Amino acid sequence: MTDMDPAQLLTAIRSAVAAAPDTSAAMKQVVRLLKDGVADYTWVGIYLLDGNELVLGPFMGKPSPHTRIPLGRGICGAAAAEKATIIVDDVNEDPRYLACSVDTLSEIVVPIMQDGEVFGEIDIDSDRRAAFGSKDRELLEPVAALLAERMAEDR
Ligand code: SME
Question: Does the beta carbon of 75 lie inside 6 Å of ligand 1?
Answer without folding.
Answer: yes
